[in-house]
Amino acid sequence: MARIGILTCSNATQDLGCSSASCLADLRKREGTFSDYPKDKPLDLVGIINCPGCPTLAGEDKLLQRIRALAEFRVEAIHFTYCIKTLCPFREKYRTALEKAFPEIKIVIGTHREHITPEEFRQRVGRLFAQPRKTMVDLLTIS
Ligand code: SF4
User: pTM for the complete prediction?
Assistant: First the structure.
C-alpha cells in the first residue's frame, strides 16, 4: 500500500475555491502522477494539507510544521498539487526543505493529468479574477 499525502496551495483552495476534486478523482482513477505507482499497490490517501500561504520570514518553518503532522501518519510520498507545480514560485525551495527535513518521504511534483499547458493555466488563473463566475473546473477544461 502506498501511503500518500497531498500538499495544496492556499491561494488555489482559498482564493480560487479549489476543492481538490480533480486531484482526488485522478488519485481514484490512478491517472496523472498517480499512474506511476505499481498497479498492484493500493493507494491510501492519508491526508491533505494546505501550504501555510506565501512565505514571510517564517514561511518554510510553518510548512515543515504542517508536513510534520502528515509525516506522523507514516506517509511515504507527498504530492505537490498541479496548482503548486504551475503557479508556486516557491515550489523548489519547498521541495528542497521537505527533502532535507523528511528524507524518508518522496516528494512528487504534480497530481492530476495536465489537460492544458501550464502557460494556458496561468493565463486562465489571471483572467479568473476578472470573471468571478468561473471555477476551477472551467480552468482545467479545454475550451
Ligand atoms: S507559497 Fe506557493 S503553494 Fe503556498 S500559497 Fe503561495 S503560491 Fe500557493
Answer: 0.88
